[in-house]
Design a protein that fits this description.
By secondary structure, the protein is mainly alpha-helical. It has one domain (2-169). It has helices spanning 2-43, 50-71, 80-88, 90-124, 140-169, and strands at 128-131, 135-138. It has a two-stranded antiparallel ribbon with strand order 1-2. It starts with a helix and ends in a 17-residue tail after the last helix. The relative contact order is 0.15.
Length: 186
């Protein structure tokens, strides 16, 4: 039990680190965009490659931050039905939640599997966006972020599926103060 708790803590710190990296990236991107706007307006000299950097950054930032968002129970979802069902039929609600989260794990495992060849190709062929002589931005780091994030999402969904499956087996268990309806323990 202690080992599982320790692993959950390590995984939680990992998703938090990914989220923090995404937040720092947002700040750096804001500085870059404002510098580009200032360069255009004041000096008539934009920073080369800003559109390419921004387009790749948006993907990277989203994928860095979604595992922690799911872990904290803030992933976008409509839970009006689930909340009512949890109050009236907790075993059935937890069974449905377990199935939902297991499907989420499958989806991100499929995305991981499907994204791996893109990462290998980007790495092997040194793929980039931009124009040679102007600016080139390699795409493999974004592909790597996608792989890491898909793995983290699959693991997090499996953790949630496991928690709800356990609750389903313990009929009528009431959620504790440190857990959300999504079954996330901070």
């Amino acid at each position: 039990m202690l080992e599982r708790s320790r692993a959950a803590g390590v995984f939680g710190r990992f998703t938090l680190a990914l989220n923090a990296l995404g937040t720092i990236w947002i700040f750096a991107l804001m500085v870059l965009i404002n510098a580009d706007i200032g360069g255009r307006a004041l000096l008539s000299a934009p920073i080369p490659g800003v559109p390419e950097i921004v387009s790749l950054s948006i993907v990277g930032i989203v994928f860095l931050q979604i595992p922690h968002t799911l872990r904290m129970g803030h992933f976008v979802r409509s839970d009006a039905f689930g909340t009512r069902m949890m109050a009236r039929a907790p075993r059935a609600a937890n069974a449905l939640e377990a199935i939902f989260h297991a499907l989420g794990a499958c989806l991100f495992a499929i995305l991981l599997w499907a994204s791996y060849p893109s990462f290998v190709k980007a790495w092997r062929d040194d793929l980039f966006v931009g124009a040679i002589g102007h600016i080139v931005v390699p795409t493999w780091p974004i592909n790597l972020i996608i792989l890491i994030s898909c793995f983290a999402m699959a693991v997090q969904y499996l953790r949630l599926a496991w928690k709800h499956a356990q609750r389903c087996l313990r009929a009528g268990t009431v959620l504790g103060d440190d857990e959300t309806v999504a079954g996330v323990a901070p």
